[in-house]
Amino acid sequence: MNKLIIAAIITLPLVLSGCGEAPAPRQKTAAAGIENLQRVNAEHAQINDEIELDGIIEAVNRAVVSAQTSGRVLALPFDVGDVVLEGEVIAGITDTEQQAALSNAKAQLAEAQARFMEADQQLKRIKDVFERGVVSKAEFDQAKAAQKTAAARVESGKAAINNAEQGLVYTQIRAPYSGILVQRLVDVGATVAPGTPLLEGVSLKDLRVEVDIPEHYIVALRQHNKARIILNNGASITAKSLRIPPSANAATHSFRTLLELPEAEHEQPEAEHEQPLFPGTLVKVAFAIGNSEQILLPNSAIAKRAEISAVYVFNGAQQLEFRYVRTGKILADDKVVILSGLQHGEQVALDTVAAASVYKTQRFAAQDK
Asked: Which of 31, 38, 58, 232 has its C-alpha lying 20 to 30 A from 15's C-alpha?
């Protein structure tokens, strides 16, 4: 029993001395971690004061494809909602009549060429004897006219072949541009004539947004001429141009304005933007109506805690402060407006994950003291 008591007395100072030395590694780790954090200065910047209005996306190119020849619909390879690339066959029509017309045109051309060769040989013979004074000039002129008539018939035959070939091409209806099929207007087996509507489609390459602007905003909008389309994920697209009409709608007292979206970088219709945009959908549009000075921070420097936003502020050279802030709108360059909680010139950690790790280490080190 005495031996156990003596062992406990000897061990206790060792444990106590170990507890006293623990904070040192944590303090060194915290100091080393904070030096590696990227920093960004909270600075004032001029931004646009904006109003947000509802807009509807519409396609610039929306067309109904019609038949250009007669026949019966053989195939409709695509259904509603399918993505169609430019030049793909979207409908097939019987080509019996067109094939017959092409064969007939080729036969007429062959006959015309044969008659031309005969008339041309006759003209050469008449010319030879005319130069020797055997035949009259009237006979020579008659042979020359016959040769020109035969040549004209050859050209007419070639034109008939081109026309028949084009009619054959019309039996394979191709997409005029890449887009999405939105409506079938005929069924397989239906008989069609030139002008019969077949399919309707829209292109996702060229889009615009239609917005009704109240008249009391129109002067500021004309002055700044800037707008951005706000997507559901919070990102935004700057409008390429604004087309404001010269007069308002007499019934609604608003200006129906068209915002042209920038062209997509990809050719695939479904990949126009990072978030797909489709005609007929509702979006928010922010219009610039003035300027103000605000503090801006990159969105990556904002730490989200449920509905609360905060930043990690450098409080001196070696300390971090977790501070709540009130944020405003997110701008097109992914910067956030800080409405309160931060002063001009203060330094904020850019990487919230790394800053959170350093902040926790500092708190543990402070508790161990």
From this structure: 31
